[in-house]
Amino acid sequence: MSKPIRKKFLILLFITICVITLLVSSRSTSFNPRPVVPEVFLRSVSKESITPLKNTKHFLVSAYMDQRVQGFDIRLIGMFRRDSVQELHCFFCCAGYTSETTPAKILQHSDNFGFPFVTTDVMCQIPKTCNATHVTLLTQTRPENGTEYVWLPIRNKKTNGGEEKRMDFTVCVSNLFGGYNNVLQFAQTLEMYRLLGVNRVVIYNTSCGPDLDSLLQSYSQEGFVEVVSWPIDKYMNPSRGWLFSEHGGDIHYFGQLTTLNECIYRSMERSRYVLLNDIDEIIMPYQHDNLKSLMDELQKQHPNVGSVHYACISKYVSHLFIKAYSHFFRWECSSLRTTSFPSITLNQVGGFTFLSGAGCLELIFWNMFTEKTLTDRLTIHTR
User: Fold this and answer.
1) What is the pLDDT at residue 166?
2) Going along 183-302, which residue ranges are E strands?
3) What is the DSSP letter of 144?
4) 46-83: b or e for each residue (b if 16 or more CB lie within 10 Å)?
5) Any one cellular component term from GO for this entry (predicted)?
């Protein structure tokens, strides 16, 4: 064989070997979808409201379809330890098989009040060929062989916005704890909200007394109340206060900000408006018979406003902040009277009896710590 021919042969052989090597390498590193064994998978789906995230110090709460942010499809809500945030990857179950991973975008909420844990959103993109039903997060780019992961079901998968909403108003009440058992207060608040047109009240319960537990079970059976178990004290030391430097603990007020954010997304596809309240606070329209007529008027006047703060609509709404009033003020009913508003008489009993007294019904009161929100749920974004 002549030298030129031999040279060409060697070059061709080298190119062939390189191509074969590249093909073998690409096959070995490409992702092969893995079928899911139904029995094993069902055991791996989290049925808890708080789920520890494998290989991290973080906790996941829930996952919701949310395609309002360009480039993302899923929003996971969790509680992350601020000093241990690492790169994460989204991993999906796609109706019978697992997907490749996609990068996760971690959004820590700005309000942490100095506590080690903070409410955190994680945004994920679903792979194009995946009909995702469940999701989890990984600390590595590829799943480990033989490892069982805990999956979160993806909720609110219908996001076209065209379907008719089943409810107008949902009230989110965060964090019952400490064996709270004030049945009278709870019953009066729930019935007042029913009169005002609220369709459902969602309550996050760490612990409550036996009497209140029976009451909540009764309201749950009729569908007016939805109780979400919130055993946060099993996973961390939740604070009973709002500031770490004063109260200590792992997270602000039993994870209040996490539960309120979770409640907004829980209600996003089933309720037009979401009210964020404590049980001792009532939004009381004084120029309208109910909340729907109030919001219909406000919507006409402010069509581009999605969130209403109470202190900004005092022309329409009177506040009933019983706890704040009874702790900080000792005014007589007559001293609160104005030409525009009736006032309130407090009877210090097991609850608060605001439907009795000398014609007193409402109390006008707010300060920088008591501003609450009534929100069109589709306008909410973390950032």
Assistant:
1) 82
2) 200-205, 225-229, 271-277, 281-285
3) P
4) beebbbebeebbbbbbbbbbbeebeebbbbbbbbbbee
5) membrane
- The enclosing H or E element of 42 equals helix 38-44
pTM of the entire predicted model = 0.76
User: What 3-state class would DSSP assign to 203?
Assistant: strand
Mind spelling out the 3-state secondary structure of 3-41?
HHHHHHHHHHHHHHHHHHHHHHHHHHHCCCCCECCHHHH
Q: Are 272 and 380 in contact (CB under 8 A)?
A: no
Helix axes 210-221, 183-195, angle to 10 degrees: 20
**What is the Cα–Cα distance from 323 to 318, expressed in whole angstroms?**
15
Of the candidates 145, 154, 214, 159, which has an alpha carbon nearest to the alpha carbon of residue 377?
159
Considering only CA atoms, give the Rg of the chain.
27
Q: How far is CA 243 from the centre of its chain?
A: 21
Question: Tokens at residue 90, please?
Answer: 């989204």
CB-neighbour burial class of residue 368 (10 A; exposed 0-12, middle 13-18, buried 19+): exposed
pLDDT digits (tens, 9 = 90+) for 26-49: 443 444 556 655 555 667 899 999
Using the structure block, give the residue that is written with the tokens 């749920």. 377
First to last CA, the chain: 72
Locate tokens 């110090």: which residue?
Answer: 57
- Do the beta carbons of residue 98 and residue 91 sit within 8 Å? yes
Q: Is 78:120 a contact under the CB 8 Å cutoff?
A: yes
Contacts of 272 (CB under 8 A, 6+ apart): 165, 167, 168, 169, 376, 377
Backbone φ, ψ for residue 157 (5° rounding): -70, -20
- For residues 193 and 225, the answer to whether their CB atoms sit within 8 Å is no
230 closest CA partner among 253, 248, 198: 253
Question: What mean pLDDT, rounded, does the chain reach?
Answer: 78
Give the mean pLDDT of 98-106: 95
DSSP assigned state of 71: T
